[in-house]
Amino acid sequence: MNRKDVDPDFSAAAAFGARLRRLRDEKGWTQDELGTRIGCTGSHISAVETGRRPPTQQFAAGADRALGTGDRLERQSLTVRETALLEGFPEFVALEGSAAEIRLFEVGIVPGLLQTREYAEAVLSGAVRRGAITDQQADEWLVLLTKRQASLERTPPPLLYAVLDEGCVRRLVGGQRVMAAQLDRLVAFAELPSAVLQVAPFDLGERRAFDLPVTLLTLSDRSNLAYTESAQSGRLERDNRLVQPLLTAYHHLQVEAAPQAQSVAMINQLRKGTP
Hints:
Shape: elongated
Strand content: 5-15%
CATH class of the largest domain: Alpha Beta
CATH topology of the largest domain: Endonuclease, Chain A
Strand order of the largest sheet: 3-2-1-4-5-6
CATH architecture of the largest domain: 2-Layer Sandwich
Number of strands: 6
Helix content: 40-55%
Structural class: alpha/beta
Number of helices: 12
Oligomer: single chain
Distance between the termini: 57 Å
Number of domains: 2
C-alpha cells in the first residue's frame, strides 16, 4: 500500500495525524480496523492521518478509547481546532505544492505566495493586535507561508497566474520601506518565465469577476479544483460542475484586467513614491 508521507512540522493537523498513524502502526491495525473501533471509515482515518481533515473532539476521544491513550489525543486535537488555518486550507496547501498551474485572485493585500517576509509579518501583527489570532498562530502561519513559497522553486516550477485588485498594490502595509520592498518583489515576480502578473484596476467596477479571494489549481492529471475563503471559512471544491464556472470567470477577469506590461508600469510608478 502506498503511504503518503506526513511532515508533523507542517501544521497542527499534520502533527496529530502523524501521531495517530504511529499509534495505529504500533497496534498493527489497518486504517479500516481503527475506523471500526472508533466508528468511522478507513478513508476518514486516512484523511486525518495525512492532515487533510482536522480531528473533531468526538473523533479524538474515540481514538483515545480505542488506542488506550488516556486523553492525550483529545488534548492534542484542541491545538488543531485552535489553529489559525481555515478548514480545507491544509489539504489545499498540500495540493498547491504539486500543482502544475496556479491561478489566484486577491483583494486588499498581496497574496501570500508573493509576499516578502516583512510584509507577511506586518499583516500578521495587525491580526494579532486585533485579537483575530494569537502570537503562536502568527508564528505557525509564517512557517507555513515559508514552506508554500519554497514549493514554487520545484523543477519544473508551476505556471503561476496572479491577478491582484488595485487595492493590493496601493494599500500601504508595514510602512514605506516594507511596501517598497514588496512592490520590488512583485516586479521581480513578473519577470519570471513561469509567471503572469496583472492588476485589476478600480475602474473595472462591476466587471470584476470576484469579490472574494479565489485560487484555482490545475493538477498534473489536468483536473481542476478551487479554494475560496471568507474571513471565517475556507472551502476546497473538487466538483468540476462548480469549479468550471470559476475557471471561466477567471479567464474573463484576465481579459478585463490590465496587461502585464501596463500592470508592472503601474507598480513601478507607485514604487517611485516610496523610499
